[in-house]
Amino acid sequence: MRTLIILAALLAAVPAQAQLVIAHRGASGERPEHTLAAYERAIDAGADFIEPDLVVTKDLVLVARHENELSDTTDVASREEFAARRKTAEIDGQLITGWFAEDFTLAELRTLRAKERLPGLRRANARYDGLYQVPTFAEIVSLVRAKSAESGRTVGLYPELKHPTFLLQQGIDSVDLFVSALKKEGLDGKAIPLFVQCFEVAPLQRLDRLTDLRLVQLVAAEGGPADEPAVSYAEMLSLSGLARVKEYADAIGASASLVVGVDGKPTALVATAKAAGLPVHAWTLRKENAYLPPALRNGTDEAATGNYAAAWTLLAAAGVEAIFTDDPALATALRRSASR
Where is the GP-PDE domain (predicted)? Predict the structure, then answer.
């Protein structure tokens, strides 16, 4: 009850602000993630940026998947012709068994179909299983340009490089491939509506030397960057740690749990980051009870929609400049309401 009273007071005191809306993997609360349909849905909802996670095929094409392991988001496990591709790999210190994007050519990957990653929570999304292919980064850029022209507003890109150190160990330089793709598309410079994010450090440092893009150091509540095993994210979020991050990055992408405590009060992160000259972008706001703190849940069904508006407002009140969300339509509606 005390937590509910604190939350109510905070929500009454601080209106939702005009934070940037980042469509996390597209409108992934409405369509299977990382499909052109999810990205288009997000753009139509008014998202400022769409976020493709980028992995690489065997023939060195950048494609969008949340992980390089494919079985959670495609039908690869049911495809007998690819049964022999199943293997176990150590990725960032974890043993993962499945099918990996870097073992498939783009042509082979095109034969797969996307599916909902969370069918237990997003049963409606599972209706779209089998309809969509895995998109390439070039196709996503084309979609964004077409939708920007159609809508008359600028839509940005916010790609994340997934497991670049692991891929480099496999002989695949995803940073170099990404830079080449950007140059081919004419996407370089701080004036371009594009952020690049990564949980690792060295890839961002390389990008800082190779491009003029805005770079975002991702941090989680636990662990540390895979390419810096002696460093924890907690250490990186100290004032001295953030000063080092500022040498190569332009913002921090932080788990929402690092921004707002379980009591609904802002932590010190935003203030500390701002003191170091780094804005904070918070991830990831979702509408389902399973992803909301107990005080903001609606009943006991994990798939039910909780108090999304309250969660948005708490993050806004903490002073973040952007919020990643699976539900950009809800976020943009809240922003419009606040502006009125």
Answer: 19-335
For residue 120, CA distances in Å to 32, 116, 290 come to: 13, 9, 11
Buried b (16+ CB within 10 A) or exposed e, 310-326: bbbbbbbbbbbbbbbbb
DSSP 46-93: T-SEEE-EEEE-TT--EEE-SSSB-TTTBSGGG-GGGGGG-EEEEETT
Secondary structure (DSSP) of 148-212 = HHHHTS--EE--EE-SHHHHHHTT--HHHHHHHHHHHHT--STTSSBEEEES-SHHHHHHHHH--
> Could you list the pLDDT tens digit for every one of the 340 residues in the chain?
444 334 444 444 444 456 999 999 999 999 999 999 999 999 999 999 999 999 999 999 999 999 999 999 999 999 999 999 999 999 999 999 999 999 999 999 999 999 999 999 999 999 999 999 999 999 999 999 999 999 999 999 999 999 999 999 999 999 999 999 999 999 987 788 999 999 999 999 999 999 999 999 999 999 999 999 999 999 999 999 999 999 999 999 999 999 999 889 999 999 999 999 999 999 999 999 999 999 999 999 999 999 999 999 999 999 999 999 999 999 999 998 877 6
Instruction: Mention every residue, 6+ apart, whose C-beta is less than 8 A from residue 332.
Output: 21, 45, 46, 47
Q: Is 303 strand, coil or helix? A: coil
Say which CATH architecture domain 2-66+135-339 belongs to: Alpha-Beta Barrel (3.20)
What's the token pair of residue 153? 């507003």
**Amino acid sitting at position 242:** L
Q: Kindly state the greatest CA–CA separation across the chain.
A: 59
- CA-to-CA distance for 19 and 28, rounded, in angstroms? 19
